[in-house]
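[job 0412] stage=fold_complex status=start
inputs:
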Amino acid sequence: MSNDGYWFQAPPVSTRIPLPPAEPVVELVDITIDGRTVQAPKTSTILDVTRSLGIDTPTLCFLENLTPVNVCRICVVELTGARTLVPACSRKIEAGMVIQTDSPRVRLARKMVLEFLGSSVDLSTAPQAQSYIERYDAKPDRYGPRKESARTHDHAEAVDGTKARTTQVPVKIDNDLYVRDYSKCILCYKCVEACGTDAQNTFAIAVAGRGFQSHISTEADVPLPDSACVYCGNCIGVCPTGALMFKSEFDMRAAGTWDESKQTQTDTICSFCGVGCTLTLHVQDNSIVKVTSPLDVEVTHGHLCIKGRFGYQYVQNRDE
Amino acid sequence: MDLHIHGDTASPQEREAVDGLLGPAPSAWMGGLRNLNEEGRIALVGGQESRTQRHRLIEAFHAVQGRIGWVSEGALNYICQRLSVPPAEAYGVATFYHLFSLSPRPSTVVHVCDDIACRIKGGENLCQDLEKTLGPSGSGSWQRSPCLGLCERAPAALTLQAATTPRGITLAPTSGEEITQGLKQNAWPVDEPFQNLSRSIPPSGSRELRLLKRIGKIDPESIEAYILSGGYARLKQALALGSEGVIREVLDSKLMGRGGAAFPTGRKWEAVAKAPAKPHYLVCNADESEPGTFKDRLLMEGDPFAVLEGMTIAGLATGCEKGFLYLRGEYPLAGKRLALALDLARFAGFLGENILESGLNFDIEIRRGAGAYICGEETALFNSIEGKRGEPRNKPPFPVQEGVFGKPTVINNVETLVNIPLILKEGGKAYAQLGTESSTGPKLFCLSGHVARPGVYETTFGPTLRQMIEIAGGVPEGRKIQAILLGGAAGVFVGPDQLDIPLTFEGTRAANATLGSGVIIIFDDRVDMTDILTRIAEFFRAESCGQCVPCRVGTVRQEELFHRLRSQQPLVSREEELNLLKEIGQVMRDASICGLGQTASSAVESALKNLKGLFAERGQP
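[job 0412] stage=fold_complex status=done
writing structure:
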C-alpha cells in the first residue's frame, strides 16, 4: 500500500503562535456612589458596582445565576433625579449617576419591606432575611398578631384589621425528595425561573393568583408527581427561605437532629455522566444530608439534575 | 419544550369554542386527531406554528369562558396543546384575571358594582340585599365588582351570559329586584338607556362640543353617517401631510396624554417614529378602569370610527403596520360597536393594505382585558397582549424603546387618540390656543356622585372645580359638599374649601392634586367618608398584581389599618396608626415597581390631610 493517492493529507504545521481572542472593548462610565466617584463598565448593574466597592447591598430575589426580576425591592437605592428609588439588582448604570445606598429613604424602604415580609411570611428558616431584619431594625410585630389566611378569589374578603393577614397554608409533602412549605414563601420568583428558561426548561410551576393571594403553583395545584416536575431540585437550590426543602433536611429538622455546625462540605465531581458537574456534599455524622452545587462553577452554574442532586444513597449503603 | 398534559380532556363544546378562535387543530401535536400519513411532516411545523400563537392565550380563555361560563381543567389542557403553553403557566395566567373562573359557575353571572361612585348611590345596600336573597358574593350567580365604568347611572351591574354567542347586558341604574327577577326568569331588560347615549352627556347637542359632537347624534354603527359628519377627512389629510408633518402638528398642539400620566403625545410619537428597531406597534389603551372614569366608554360606544381614525393616523405617522386596541373586558357594547366599525372601515379601505391607495398598510386588532385594573398600566397591558399575567415591567426600558413584543411602541389613551383628528382639523398651532398655556385643547370630565346631572362634560381647559360642579347642576337641593375625589382612586381628595382649583394640569399640580383621567366624584355631607376610604384601600389590595413586596403586602396592611381606624380599635394608639400609615405610604410610593403601588396611598392620605374630622376619636369633633 503506497501513500500516493491516499485521500488524507495532514495540514502544514503552523509557525504562528495562536493569540487569545481580543478582549471585547467595554466602555467605562463614571458614577458616584455614596460620595465616591468610580469607573465601571457600562454593562454593569448598580449592584455589580456596589459589590465591587464592598458595599453590602441586601438582596433576596437576586441570584447570580438567574435573570433579575427585581420584585423584592430590598436592594433599592436612591438615584438623584429619579422620582422613586431604583432596584440595584437590575438597573444598569449610566454615566453621571449619583447614587446613595444608605440614605434615610433607602433605610425606611428596606425596613418596611422586611416588616411586610416578616409579618406575612414565616422566616424561621431564612437566616439571611433575619439578619437583615436586625440590621434595619424592622419590627414585623407592629402589625398585630398573625392571622391564618385562607385564599379567596373575591375582593370582598371580610377584614377587621385586628390581625395581620399571613400567607399561611398547609405544608405540601407529596413526594420522597422534597417538601414545599409555602407559608415560608416570599414570592421571589427564583424557583419559577430555575424551573423555566433560566435553567431547567420544565415549566412545572408558575405564579398563580393575584395580589396577596399570589402563590407558586402547579396547574390547578396538582401534586408534584402529577405535574411536569422532573425532580431536578434546582428550585430548592435557589430558594432563599427554606420554603422548598430537601426531604432529608425537613425530616431531620422535624426530628431535631439537623445541626449545621456539625456539617462539613466537600466538593467532588458527579460520577453519573460525562458532563462533570461539581457537587457539594453536605455531610453530618458521616452521612450525606444534602447536595448542592456552587454557583460559580462554569459547568452547572449551580444547577444539577435529579441524579446528581438526589442519587447519593448508594454511597451510604455500607452494610451489604 | 416537552408539554406535560395531565388529567381531563376538553368537552366537544370546549374544543369548538377554542377552535372557533384558532381554527381546527392541524395535528395531533396540537391537540388534533392522529393522521399517520401526514403526522411526521406536520409535526415539524406544528410546534413552531403553535408557539407563534402563544400571545392568543387570553383570547382562548375568553372563548371558553364566554361559551361555557368557566374554564375547566380539560379546556385549559386543550388550550395548552393548541398554543404550546405549559399548563402551570397557563393556570397562572388564567387565575390572574378575575373575569375567568376556574371552578364551575352558572352560565349567567351578575357583576354588581360596590365601588365608591355606586356605593354612595345605593350600590352597597344593593349588594347587601343580594347577599340575603342570593347568598354571599362569588358563591353562584352574582358577585361584587370594582367600578364598572357606569358611574353616571349608578348603581350599576353587568350581566355576563355564556352562550354560543355570549352576551353582556348592562343594568344601570339597577335594583335588587331587577337582578333577582332577571336571574329567576332569565329575562333582562333591553339596554334601552344605551340606545340613547346623549343621556350620559348632559351637554349633548351643544355647538361647542368638539370631542363629543357626534355622540348620540349619529348612528355609531354606520360608516356613511361618520363620513357625512366629516369623518375620515383627517386621515386623507394625514396621508397628504406625511409622517413628519403629522408629528409636527401634534407637537405644535402641545397635546398631553389624557390617560392620567399627562405625557406630551408628540414626543412619544417622535421617539417611536425615529426608533431603528422594527416593527413598530401602536396600542390604544382602552382598559379604562380607574374608579369614576367612563369617558372612554362613551367615546367608543358613541363614536367608534373616531377612535379608529385617530389610531390609524397615529399608526401611519409612527411607522406602525399593526395596532392593538386593548379593551376593558367589562365593556361589551363598546366591544361590539368597535368590532363592527373595524369590519366596515376595512371594507371601505380605511384599514388594511394600501390604505386609500397610499401604499401604506395598517390594521387594528381588538384585545380584551379580563378584569384587572393593573392592565391599564402600560407595561402590564403589553404583557397582557402577549398572553401573560398582567404584571408591570420595570422601566427603563420605556415603551418607546421596548414595548409590546419587545418592539418600539406608541401607547395612547382613547381620548388622546380622539383628539388627533381634531388637531389636524384645527391645525396644531390653533389647537394650542385652546385652553391654557400648558393645558391645551378640550378635555373630558367624568362627573358622578352627588351632583344633579352626572355624566361626561367637555370643556376647553380653564374652568375651576366649582364651575364644573355648577355646570353639572351642583349638589342636590339642601345638601352640602363634604369632599370631592379628583382623578379616581389613584387621585386626591379635596375639601369644600378647595373648590377654586383650576382644572388644568398645572393648576391641580400647584394644589397638590391631580387631574388623572378626569374623574370628579362629589360626596355630600351624608356620606360616611371612612367607609369610602376603606373601600379605596380594599380596591388597591384587590387590584395589586402581587409582584413586588411593597405593594403586595403594603396594600393589605393599609387596608387592615383603615379597618382599625374605622372601628376605633388602634393597635397602640391613633397617633401610632397614622404614623404607620405614613410609613406604609412612603415605601409604596418609593419602592413599588409601577404606578399602582406608587399611588395606592395617595387618595387616602390626601383625605386625612384635606378633610376635617375623619376618624376622630370618640368624644372629639
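[job 0412] summary: The longest helix of chain B spans residues 233-253.
[job 0412] exit 0
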